Amino acid sequence: MANLLGYAASCAVLVTFLMRTMAPLRFVAILSNVLFLSYGYIEQIYPVFFLHVVLLPINCWRLCSFQNNAGRQWRLAKPARGADFASSPPMWFLIGILAGAAGCLILIGAAEAHRTLISSL
Questions:
Q1: Domain annotation covers residue 75
Q2: What are the start-end ranges of the H helices in 43-69?
Q3: Which listed site, 19, 30, 49, 70, has its alpha carbon 20 to 30 Å from 105?
């Protein structure tokens, strides 16, 4: 079952590379993040889990940014003076890193508690 989840996640990533439009690409990328999060958790592959904990908020931010800018031409520009840091990519990246670290600590703590419980039986 877990291998099937891993293959589904890998196929979702492949599909993102075949996309031509941004919104569907982000939806499929979010799906692949969720699938890889599940796979990494079930198989206890913490680097995969951590990576997708970081990528999930980035993809969500990009999708929201795309929705807010719908109909406008995308361009790289410097933020206006006094731009809100909370809506910037570095903030979402930082949130992703912190959430990933917290998730890994929780998983490691749960695994340690499980080992302690098993050894006490």
A1: no
A2: 46-68
A3: 30
